[in-house]
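Listing S7. Sequence submitted for prediction.
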Amino acid sequence: MDTYSLIREAIEKRQQVLATYRGYHREMCPHAIGFNKRHERQALFYQFAGDSTSGLGPAGSHENWRCIPIDELHHVSVREGDWHSSSDHARPNTCPFQQLDLEVTG
């Protein structure tokens, strides 16, 4: 299964995604997937563990949203586990989709 399909299925099943992005191991919950205005595949994740350039805020913080180009993810796997998100459940404007394929609802 390609990475896009794997992440899309993880959204449907509310599974966690583990991946390497920009050299950092990340543990994330995917919330939306689709294409940006340049028709590049991207996904909106809520990162709850691992590392990143900017570090992680406290659990539930809006600082933990990540808009990531799917083609830049490596060593991608999924697993069952607790679902993590920001308490406001709002999709941040930092990840605009030209074409939204799937988004977590409810």
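Caption to Listing S7: primary sequence and predicted structure tokens for the chain studied. The beta strands are 16-21, 24-35, 41-50, 65-69, 73-79, 99-103. Residues 3-103 form one domain.
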